[in-house]
Amino acid sequence: MKKKLILILSIILSSSSMVWADGGMWLMQQLSSQIAKMQKMGLQLEALDMYNPNGNSISDAVAMFDGGCSSIIVSNKGLLLTNHHCGYDQIQKHSTVEHNYLQDGFWSNSFAEELPNPGLKVEIVERIDDVTPQIKKALKRIKDPNSMLYLSPSYLTSLADRIVGKKAVKNPMYKYEIKAFYGGNKYYMFTKKVFSDVRLVAAPPSSIGKFGADTDNWVWPRHAGDFSIFRLYVDKNGNPAPYSKDNVPYEPKKWVQVSSKGVQEGDFAFIMGFPGRTYRFFTADEVQEWSEIDNNIRIEMRAIRQNVMLNEMLADEQTNIMYAAKYASSQNAYKRAQGANWAIRQRGLKSIKQTQQEQLLEWAKNENRGDVLEAVQRISKSIQDRADMRRQRWYLMEGLLLGVEFTFAPVPQASLLKNWEDKSERDKGLATLKKAFEKFYNKDYSPKVDEKISIALLTRYVERIATKDQPEAIRQGIEKYGSAQAYIKSIFEQSIYASKERFEAFLQAPQKAQLEEDPMTIFGQSVLNKYRSLVKELAEFDAPLAAAQKTYIAAWLDMQGEADLAADANLTLRFTYGNIKGYKPRNGITYAAKTTLEGVMEKEDPNNWEYIVSPKLKELYAHKDYGKYANKDGSMPVDFCATTHTTGGNSGSPVFNSEGQLIGLNFDRNWEGVGGDIEYLPNYQRSIIMDIRYLLFVIDKFAGCTRLIDEIQPVY
């Protein structure tokens, strides 16, 4: 009997390991369990070369950029590479009509020309410590059984002073960040050095850095030179400090070599960075909820909005300009939801999670762990019980909060209405209201388009949501006017915010009643109140659901062990590895692993801003003037893809070869691999990476900024 039980357990464990074998965004402490596999795949480094809390290693050159991207130090003077879209806000802030760096690019010719960026921060992890015992001890003091503080990053980080002391926590050069892992079963503290003097060094024009823009987002093959370059500055003692003209370039303890030797399909590659969020431990029911409620509603409502928007854009060039960015932004999440559902449907992700779940329950049964089955049942019940409210929230959010622009029409301050009879206070309040109106009714707002979109979205919303569950203003408006269309038309006919002329007329003879009774304000506040109500009601499910998930994930840790079980991403330093490799997305279609400048020329469309090609770039292409950066066949490399497991937050992540040399910057992933947020898809999951040789080529041959080439000192 004992032998039989051991055999059963070994089968369960081996099969579960097989299900979880591929992918993973691994913590640096898990290198020891992965290094042998990595070396077998081609890695020529040891674990301490990658992460060494007591010495120098590659991870010391990897940095979080602006709170949500990744970056890499490539020189002994603190030169930092990240994506163009990660540095976009800074580039935009420095751009003017006279100096349009977004359009023309920016190339500094000296340290003195590098541009400061107030508010921008870069963080480098110096060490990672397991603080599970200390945090669990502190959490025992919380008496509320429904408290969610054990998962709160801000609360957990507030406990750091109990570990490192109050003096250390007050040091502005360092940040001690504590986060929960495995559903609150483990806690790690990240000691980070924080740099606040970060200067813009260089950026290509958007026609290179953003080539393909949102149309190509989530798409492979890709042809973007998605990079920007910054530099870290410190005080004269080498310590991070606020901006000062006296600060000097940072001399890091580690920077990485940049390889211009090129990449080949099948080559080993690894990535380090700060991936944002994944759902690796979803149960089958959670996958179904994500697909059938969250994704389906997003796809449905955004398709309605986008169809109306696109028709208006195609009919009028000015509207096309005004709504291009809004359309692209909507498409981004729309395509992501479609990709996730494609993976769930075509690749059977729900079935995979069901299999994993059954394996865990079988193990738990043999271990007399009844709490695991109870946790799975509680998860299922919570999802079932909240389904209708969650459905309401998603229709409200996608249909009316994100889709109807006038939901966020100006709201008069309470002080304005209260002090209406006081002319001084009234004038002050109306001046504030005018600013709010100008922000709402900006150069990219068309009431005509908003009205058409609102009619389409509200018509679908009231078809899907029962009258009793609709915001009060919508119930009353449709009852009064007879239909969603008539109600929306009445809003645009009556609101002072529906036209500039009407608002100006109001300012000439302001009436308090007009503000109190404005239909746009009433609509918007009613929608927001309903949304807040739904969020509050849904919050009642959070604590029991999180507790059940914690038990479920704890069982996975007990069964498989932490060393071989990757935790969900949460914007902490991770590594992932794989091979440079193309893929077959569908029958009869094969994508190669690499793209070249020829593809840029094939995509060129001078009438579409997303595919404009610079005359200088066309000249270099025509003369095949690629310097030392060409492939062996004479073509100019642009991007490549790899089987590494990445997600949001990995933008700007450095990509290394087997020797630990930089070969690229991760900047996206493919549509077919979006389902990797819940389960790695080895045949479809691809990180989209800019070949570092394209960056060097653009710096050298396109911009002629040879001082940066001299500083980087590429390995040829």
Describe this structure in words.
By secondary structure, this protein is of the alpha+beta class. The chain has 2 domains: 23-121 and 196-280 and 566-716, Thrombin, subunit H (Beta Barrel), CATH 2.40.10; 284-542, no CATH class. The chain contains 27 helices and 19 strands. Strands 2, 3, 4, 5, 6, 7, 8, 9, 10, 11 and 12 form an 11-stranded antiparallel sheet that branches. Strand 3 and strand 4 (79-82) form a beta hairpin. Helix 11 packs antiparallel against helix 12 (317-346), helix 11 runs parallel beside helix 14 and helix 11 packs antiparallel against helix 17. Mean pLDDT is 94; it is low at 1-21.
CATH topology grouping of the largest domain: Thrombin, subunit H
Round the Cα radius of gyration to an integer and report it.
27 Å
Question: pLDDT average, as an integer?
Answer: 94
Low-confidence blocks of residues? 1-21
Largest sheet: number of strands, sense, barrel closure: 11 strands, antiparallel
**What's the helix count?**
27
Strand content: 5-15%
CATH architecture of the largest domain: Beta Barrel
Taken from the alpha-carbon principal axes, the silhouette is globular
- The total count of strands amounts to 19
